Backbone:
């Protein structure tokens, strides 16, 4: 069980999107859930993403500023998941 950085609900980690920070300090979406790095989880819906942006949930998890591109790639991933 993992906590969403947006809605703060506990859910099974397979139901969520994992964002990791690699040792090279870059942020990557981890679909497999097995890549090395510090991870944070978010529900795959727009409400949780907007809550995470508003509350700076990812910034708190990683203790640093998050590049805008990370939020854009999360939004694209959620659009992809919704279209399936």
Residues:
């Amino acid at each position: 069980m993992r906590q969403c950085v947006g809605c703060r609900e506990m859910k099974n980690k397979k139901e969520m999107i994992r964002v990791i920070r690699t040792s090279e300090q870059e942020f990557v979406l981890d679909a497999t859930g097995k890549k090395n790095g510090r991870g944070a989880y978010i529900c795959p819906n727009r409400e949780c993403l907007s809550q995470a942006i508003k509350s700076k949930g990812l910034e708190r998890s990683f203790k640093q500023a998050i590049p805008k591109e990370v939020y854009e790639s999360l939004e694209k991933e959620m659009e992809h998941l919704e279209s399936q």
